[in-house]
Amino acid sequence: MARKKPAKDKSEKNTDAEEPATGATPNGPIATRTFDDYECSGNVMTDFPGLCALLDIKDIPAIKTKSGSSNHESTPGGRQSHKKPVPDVFKPHIQVQLENGDPYSTSSLKIFGWTVDEPIIRVLCKMISSMAILHTIYFWQAKLTDEMVITLANAICVCNNLRVITLEGNPLTDHNHHLLFSEGSVLTHLNLRNNRIEDEGVRLLASGLSTSRSANRSLISLNLSFNYIGDVGAGYIAKGLRFNRTLLFLTLSNNHIGDLGATQLAMVFGEIVLTHEEIVQRRKLLLEKMHSITDPSGVMQQHKDAPSSGINGKSIWRETRTICKRTQKGTLKKLKCFCSTSAVDEHSSVAKMASDQLPSIASNPSLNLNKGENKITAKKRETSKPDGKRAPTKDQKCLKKAEGQDMEEKTHVFDQENKKPLDLVSPLLNESARQRDGELVLPGNTTLVSLSLAGNRITEVSLPQFLTSLQMQEGGKGLLRLCLQRNNFAPECESYVKLKELMTYRDPLNKKTEEETEEDAEGSQCSDS
Predict the structure, then answer these.
(1) What is the pLDDT of residues 367-390, one digit of tens each?
(2) Which of 314, 282, 308, 288 shows the shortest CA–CA distance to 300?
(3) How far is Cα 25 from Cα 23, in angstroms, rounded to an integer?
(4) 194-226 burial code (b ≥16 CB/10 A, e <16)
(5) Would you give the distance in Å from CA 192 to the centre of its chain?
(6) Whole-number Å distance between alpha carbons of 24 and 13
(7) Residues 353, 424: Cα–Cα separation, whole Å
(8) Model-wide pTM > 0.70
């Protein structure tokens, strides 16, 4: 009997030893967690090593935090040590910029010169979604693959404050760089230096800038220097600049652009001749604009999805005449103004006829009579209902106001500083459109203020086109800075000298230096006197 007791105690010890293997603690929750179940706190110092441990990453990169002028290196255990970053600059680490030293306020993530694998990308993408004020992500020679860029692009879509992405020294096989600023992106600065981007990759990037149907409305700076862009790629970029009215700074230095590509870029700043596809899209937009002004009840809805090739002056005139019979005088005035100022390329004589006939149509009382009704019964009907419609109730007014606010939020972009809606009008509807030799011509791009083409293969053949296009830009709008150094023409070239004189007059930095020199000269004269 005495020998059986130790056996019983031994079994009890075995059951006690098996309990921790289940992952449960006597007085706490389950200790084991998976990568998907991990909830990031926003603190990189704890989230990064924790997520790496869940993915069984053995060599966890160090974290270097930077806040102000102080640099701190953190080990995966969370301990910090003050070290100079120079000796270990190429050692795998993540540089983290903190706002005011707060570990929960990461503003930028930077990775320099070490190979990032797929598990590290998964960890970074999971952490990005929890960083409320993150605005910069920087990868330099991290050897990212196309699949990693796709994963990163999906993650940054939920980052509302992310504004700057640098992907430098990361060539991709499938040219997926354009996914970083897809439609709906809020990025403002994109740096794609030294990624061996060729003409096919530029085509995808240019289509993200603008087409005849859509345009990027957030990106203001694009750096494509030190790539393999040729004349074909420059043509794609010129096409992407035709209807983009947001991009301010474009860098194409140190590529393979020659006179053909430079000429296509220069023509964008002058006047744009619309293609057949662009004219078709313009007609659709004009019809939609007319529909929104004259037909709120949906009479012309049948033409919204109709082929534009079947839209002619007669059909527009028939619909205009029908609509005029059902609208009030205020709407007729709007239609008259629209017909007299728009549709330059589409039967201007028919539009003029419509505007001339509108007052007579509005003044005809027979248009307001129903079938089988004479003037006397119509007069009785009008006197019995002086207001014409029953006054809306308070609930109906509130509902209509709420619907109007929702529609305004959908159709406008709001200025964050002044809280005012900004109308997004397509450049195809520019009122300065005119006909020339049977072609429809629009003003060129006057939004881009800085273009760098230094270090390419441009000769003096394409310089006159730049001079001609820039002279067409009037009113202080258009290109303010043009860099053409280190190309295949002499600095004493006549066209280049004229371009330098023109850009010197336009460049605000040169004006500032001239004003400073004048002030210094005046100050020296005052001191001498």
Answers:
(1) 444 444 444 454 444 444 444 445
(2) 288
(3) 7
(4) bbebbbebbbbbbebbbbbeebbbebbbbbbbb
(5) 16
(6) 17
(7) 30
(8) no
Cα 88 from Cα 79, distance rounded (Å) = 17
DSSP summary character for residue 210: B
Distance of CA 136 to the CA centre of its chain: 16
Sign of dihedral through CA atoms 418, 419, 420, 424? positive
Q: What is the DSSP string of 278-344?
A: HHHHHHHHHHHHHHHHH-TT-GGGGGTSS-GGG--HHHHHHHHHHHHHHS-HHHHHHHHHHHHHS-T
Any residues with CB less than 8 A from the CB of 523 and at least 6 apart, and which? Answer: none
CA gap 369, 377 in Å, rounded: 10
Q: What is the pLDDT of residue 261?
A: 96
Which CA distances in Å does 518 have to 154, 240, 511, 515, 523? 53, 41, 11, 5, 9
- What is each CA distance from 450 to 223, 445, 482, in whole angstroms? 11, 12, 6
Question: Alpha carbon 427 to chain centroid distance?
Answer: 16
- State the SS3 of 102-152: CCCCEEEEEEECCCCCHHHHHHHHHHHCCCCCCCEEEEECCCCCHHHHHHH
SS3 (DSSP) at 80: strand
Average confidence (pLDDT) over 17-43: 60
Beta bridge partners of 94: 63, 111
Torsions phi, psi for 226 (to 5 deg):
55, 45
| Of 107, 97, 111, 110, nearest in space to 65 by CA | 97
Q: Which residues contact 366 (CB under 8 A, 6 or more apart)?
A: none
Average model confidence (pLDDT) across the chain: 74
Strand order in the sheet with 93-98: 80-81, 70-74, 62-67, 93-98, 106-112, 136-140, 164-168, 189-191, 221-223, 249-251, 450-452, 481-483
Is the Cβ–Cβ distance between 88 and 110 less than 8 Å? no
Q: Give the residue, 517 or 501, on which the prediction is more confident.
A: 501
Residues 6+ apart with CB under 8 A from 311: 283, 287, 303, 346
Residue type at position 164: V
State residue 80 phi and psi, 5-degree precision.
-110, 145
3-state secondary structure of 31: coil
The SS3 of residue 204 is helix
- Rounded to whole angstroms, how far apart are CA atoms 122 and 51? 9
* CA-closest candidate to residue 230, choices 260, 251, 207: 260
Instruction: Provide the greatest CA pair distance for the chain.
Output: 122
Cβ neighbors of 283 (< 8 A, separation 6 or more) are 308, 311, 346
SS3 (DSSP) at 71: strand
Tell me the pLDDT band of 394, cut-offs 50, 70 and 90.
very low
- Helix and strand tally (H, E) in the chain? 16, 17
